[in-house]
Write a structure and sequence with these properties.
This protein is of the alpha+beta class and 129 residues long. Helices cover 28% and strands 26% of the residues.
């Protein structure tokens, strides 16, 4: 093998390795930014929210549990503002939130996921899965 062929092969390998590192770094930064910007994030489930449940709280930071649902149908919740929620269902399961007209307002990211500063304004029904 000639010296120039070996050098060309090394350059290509270095370029590919550099590109892969750059892609991995960019993906990690984008994921971290998305999590920081929303106020919602993945974290350990609050002790008051058992596995396989979607839990709603009257207070921020998962305080004052008001409901925990595990069944898959529209379930009414009382009107309130502020609060928080945690989706502790099986991995990837999404809960849905509906208004008083039973129109879809929001679909959560897949479990496990929570919002420590959610807002229940306008939400009147939850479908846990």
């Amino acid at each position: 093998m000639r010296h120039t062929d070996r050098r060309t092969r090394l350059r290509r390998t270095a370029l590919v390795a550099g590109a892969l590192l750059a892609m991995a770094s960019t993906a990690g930064t984008a994921q971290a930014t998305a999590q920081q910007g929303s106020g919602a994030h993945v974290m350990s489930a609050p002790a008051s929210c058992p596995k396989y449940y979607f839990c709603g709280y009257a207070g921020a930071n998962y305080s004052d549990l008001v409901f925990k649902f595990t069944d898959c149908y529209l379930q009414p919740i009382s009107a309130r503002t502020g609060g928080s929620w945690y989706n502790n269902q099986s991995s990837g399961t999404k809960a849905r939130m509906y208004n008083s007209g039973k129109q879809l307002v929001y679909t959560t990211p897949g479990a496990p996921y929570g919002d420590s500063h959610g807002d229940w304004s306008g939400i009147r029904y939850i479908d846990a899965c």
